[in-house]
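hey so i finally got around to running the thing on that chain from the lab meeting. sorry it took forever, my laptop kept dying and i had to restart like 3 times. anyway pasting the input first so we r on the same page abt which one it is
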Amino acid sequence: MSRATSPDGTSIAFDRQGTGPAVILVGGGLTDRSENAPLAPELADQFTVYNYDRRGRGDSGDTLPYTVQREIEDLDALIAHAGGSAHLYGVSSGGALALEATAAGLAVDKLAVYEVPYSIAGGMLQRWGEYVEQLGPALASGRRGDALALFMRLAGSTDDDVAAARNHPMWAQSEAIEHTLAYDAACLGNGEPPTDRLSTITRPALVVTGEAGINPYTPAFPPDFYQQAADAIVATIPHAERHTLEGQTHVADPKVVSATLERFLRS
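ok and heres what got predicted. didnt touch it at all, straight out
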C-alpha cells in the first residue's frame, strides 16, 4: 500500500501494480478498494493500475467538510503520483465522480465508466429525491444502520431483507462507511446527468453497461435503468461510445471488463 496526499492534507491510500500507461480505478458506493481488487491484476499486464480507497473509506483519511471538489482533488493527487496523466475507470457512483473529474479538466487520457446510476428511468427521480431528503437527517442524528436501510430500500429491498442484512457479519463493515453514502449522493447531484458539465468533456469516453433487465442487486429499478442513464451520457459527451457487456449485471466479471477496457484504452 502507498499513499498520496490531497491538497487539504487528506491521506489517500492506494495499491499499485503492473507496468505501462496508468489506469486509476474509482470504486462505487458502500465499498473500499476491495471492490476493484479483482480487476486490477487483470489489467496489470498492460497497465500500471492504481486502485485506491476514496476518502472516508478503507485506509484513506476523511478531512471534513466533504465536497465533491475535494474528491476531485484526491484524483488529481493520484494522477500526479502516476506521472501527470492517467486513464480513469469509474464504477457506479464512482463513474459519476470520474465524469465530474474529467469535466473539471484533470489530466485524463481516456475515460471509461460502468453503470453510472443517474435516476432518469421511470419514476426514479422522485424516489432519488426522497432518499436524499431522508439520508441527511439519518446520518446527522447518528442513527447507525438507518442510512444503510434507506439505501437498501431505494434499491428495492424489503423489510425482511433489511432485517436479515442487519444480522449479517458484513453489516458492521458497511456501517463503518455508511457516512460516505452522502458523498456518493453529492457526486450524483439531483439524479440527472449534469449535461452542462459533461458536454465540456473532450477526452475519448467509453460508457458501458451490462444487459438490460438483469438487475438482481436493484430489483426496484426499471429494467433499463442503467441503459437509459448510459444513453444520456453518450448523447452529451462529444467523443463517447457505448458498449454493452452481454450477460453481465451491476457486478461484472473482471475478465470481461478488462477485455473491454484493454481494447478501448489501447485503441
